[in-house]
Amino acid sequence: MIYLDHNATTRPLPKVISAMNACMQDCWGNPSSKHPLGQEARRELAAARAEVGLLLRAQPVEIIFTSGATESNHHVLHGALHRPEMPRRIILSAIEHAGYMKSALRLRQEGVTVDLLPVDSAGRVRLDALREMLQQDAALISVMAANNETGVLQPVREIAAMARERGIPMHVDATQMLGKLPLSFAEWGADLMSVSAHKLHGPKGIGALVVRKGLTWSSLLSGQQERARRGGTENLAGIVGFAAAARHARETLETEAARQTALREALEAGLIEQVPGVTIYGAEAERLPNTVCLTVAGMSSDKLLDRLERRGIFASSGAACSSGGSDPSHVLLAMGVAGNVALGAIRLSLGRDTQLADISEVVATLRAVAEANDAAGSNPEA
Ligand code: PMP
């Protein structure tokens, strides 16, 4: 098997699994209990928070553990609309994660103004459009750090500065960037940040919302945990697994980012040279080291993925979260790609296990698939 779906999820590291096992065996107390078992769990929780903080470059008190980035993003929406002094208007980039986008757009039915910040043809948000939008006040600006489908990086720092100038809270969904490139909540100057552990070889069902110290943000889930900012008994084993993954990412990130960038460049060079009809999206922009979004002329994503899968290569169309549907990707549409073309898009996302031999095999396979498709002409059974 060649697994090229790391933006969907990653294999938990053995050290993550053993840290979680040890936690469930030996440290199963409730961190809110006052007895020694509870206090031991509380210490584990604090140590994990500090470790995750090192990767996020955020202070431990700024970190609220959640069930993942989807939940974190929903806390952001909730909080933005529960600040009576702020207008009922939010600004989101047009390429946010599908689930988040859907919830945000649904708010229109409740009378909230939801403005979508456009992107250019390379998939970068347009700062000129944001400047225009900021003529009017808003309760939130939300722009992801790196897009899950194309890997295109966004100008987070500039956007945070523009938001700060206008006194508008800025949220960044850094789910795809965490563990792939260095990032710093402190230096970005954002107010809120969402992340998830399972994209960096940690467990599923655990993530964090980072809230800048001093900012009060209304809680979606009431309860006294997480300093009353997220109710519910903590998923301690998940949190400990997140911390183990964060530590590994911090220690290996720079070499891994360089290694994957070289692999991605080899992959793209091979595709362009050898695969007839290939187009790569977002190629003119700065991107994550591991992500390639492509189409092969005349082929649907379903057919491409099926042909790859038959040869043991696993990938996804656009966002794994929205695949299975027959709608073209909202990200590619926002970049100006025609709907019928966007329906052919697949995403190859490399990871820590990807080797150069895998890249050669993927290029050779895609070449064979594209040539067979060309040879079959218009025969849909081919
Ligand atoms: N935001 C982005 C950019 C993502 O890629 C994902 C995962 N596909 C999410 C949010 C959702 O994360 P989770 O699975 O932790 O809910």
Automatic annotation (TrEMBL):
What InterPro entries does the record tag this protein with?
Aminotrans_V_dom, Cysteine_dSase, PyrdxlP-dep_Trfase, PyrdxlP-dep_Trfase_major, PyrdxlP-dep_Trfase_small
Enzymatic reactions: (sulfur carrier)-H + L-cysteine = (sulfur carrier)-SH + L-alanine
State its cofactor: pyridoxal 5'-phosphate
Tell me which species this is from: Viridibacterium curvum
Q: What is this protein called?
A: Cysteine desulfurase NifS
Origin, by domain of life?
Answer: Bacteria
Domain Aminotransferase class V: residue ranges: 2-361
Q: What is the lineage of its organism?
A: Bacteria, Pseudomonadati, Pseudomonadota, Betaproteobacteria, Rhodocyclales
Q: Which family does it belong to?
A: Belongs to the class-V pyridoxal-phosphate-dependent aminotransferase family. NifS/IscS subfamily.
Key words, A-Z: Iron, Iron-sulfur, Metal-binding, Pyridoxal phosphate, Transferase
